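Posted in: Protein Modeling Q&A

I'm a second-year student putting together a small comparison for a lab meeting, and my supervisor asked me to include a predicted structure for tRNA-specific adenosine deaminase 1. I've never done this before, so apologies if this is the wrong subforum. The sequence is pasted below exactly as I got it from our records. If anyone can share the structure token output, I'd also love a short note on what stands out.
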Amino acid sequence: MGDASLESRIARLVHSHFDALPKRSKPTIHPSGSREWIPLSSIVLVIGEGTPDEILTCVTIATGAKCLSSSQINQCQGMVLHDSHAEILAIRAFNHWLLEECKSILAQGIDPPNHEIEYEIIGANDTKDNDEVGTYPTREEISVTQASAFINWRHQPETEKNLASGTLSRTSDINHSTKTKLSWPPFELRKDLKIYMYGTCAPCGDASMELCMASQEDPTPWATPPLKTNNNSESSSSNSDGNQANPTHTTTNLLNGRAHFSILGAVRRKPSRADAESTLSKSCSDKLAVKQVVSLLTFPACLLIAPSPNAYLSALLLPEEEISRIACARAFGGGETGRLRELNGRRWSSDGDDDTASVGGRLDYAFHPFKVRPVPTAQVEEGWAFGKPKDIEGEVKKKSKSGNISAVWTAAPSSTAMYGKHGKLAITTTTNLNETLINGVKQGYRLSSPTPRKASALSRAKMWGLLRDIMQLLPSADDNTGDNAATAQRDRHEMHMSTETGLGDTPEYPLLAKVKECVLTAQSYDMMKRKCVELGLGPMKVRNEVMLDVRDVLGNWVENRGDEDWGLDVLDESRAKKVVARE
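Accepted answer (user: helix_wrangler)
Welcome! Here is the predicted structure, written out as tokens:
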């Protein structure tokens, strides 16, 4: 692992991946000398932290600082990203990567029970010998005995119901010597995995208010104008417990991103110019605060992966100069000043007794505050050439503006990647996704264009399409639809599962059929999500309750609605051509 701290090694790994991206993914330095700046955010997974076998894997990278105005939302049709701030793109990319990981597990099919796949891999040099990333790696061999390096099957052996540690490593293990039940959600993150987020600047919103104030020529908080009171007196009274870190229960409008510095602990909009049209996208601080309770698993990944304790963010890594301990304790913490402190000790559970609920054990949500840990500012400035220029007394201020391009990168599924071991950095040599986006769509397309080619893989429509593909790979006793590959995959499952211990004879099949019905036949995105919640599929019902409770504690959470009434037909190119023809 070397002498460098975990924070420094994660930062170095992220920057090495970003440096390898194509020029189109990076901000521009103009001939005039003016330059663009952009925030970067990344998700890094750590397996076996603090052990000789520790492995770091960068799975997503994103840059961005823009979001859509509220008037643009109803034009999106599921194909446009509402929020292109780096932190939010990184989380969406992480969930896309998880879905691809699930798909890869299912697509690998059935292997002999004791089959081992040997890869000749390229790993990074041991950090004990060389702390630099990107040097020529060493060669070694590794045996892989499970379908994913990061995700396991959940299952419940009927003969050993109390063994909570049981996991399935590949699809064929659904039918081993003991009778098993397919759990739902079917997957979970491996238990020795931790999730870290690295960013080059503080999240917008409450966690950066003190930094914003300090950067003003006059850091005195602005005078606060009278705010409208909430007409819902019951809601106000139910939360009037003296929580001074949460004043937003008494307001009816979201605060602008940088307005009213004296109001702290408030839910805010994304920051924008004073003359810009308003947005209903909440700040990154607010969205990250919610993730501390609902986990990093968003829809639809939460339908397939259980919200285990390690599905929550372990720590947020930021440059030391970008951390205000007071602000972070208030925005994210559960201490005396924390705006989520009343959630301490609360737990939301699905008991799994209902046929339509989760199968394979109780699913729990709880408040898991992440830590905010520093990375040396000098290291970040050395590795990140696209930070916002600082005003230095006595020096001429450099011209700069925020970039309008967002870059998104994700690693390939772990079954196709190459990893190091024994404390080595895991350099993923294959890429699953590399997109350049402007205004929430792929570069070269307009937001208003009807073609699905504009849609990012992270868009709602494309994520639903990916979920559909995954559902068609799951075994089913009565579903013979789908493309030839999916049908062949099911035939292989059914041949292997034709004994009395087969999945087709277990009571979980009706649940699987309901999940498939929701995903494959819903007429609109809104109907699909509502049906999943109504039926309590997986953790959906309890997750919805958690979301409502957290937003109530934060107060004044205004939903950014208007992009729900569309179906998967928006991804049909022929439909788009008909729309153009009518115009």
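A couple of things worth pointing out for your meeting: The radius of gyration is 24 Å. The CA atoms of residues 327 and 516 lie 44 Å apart.
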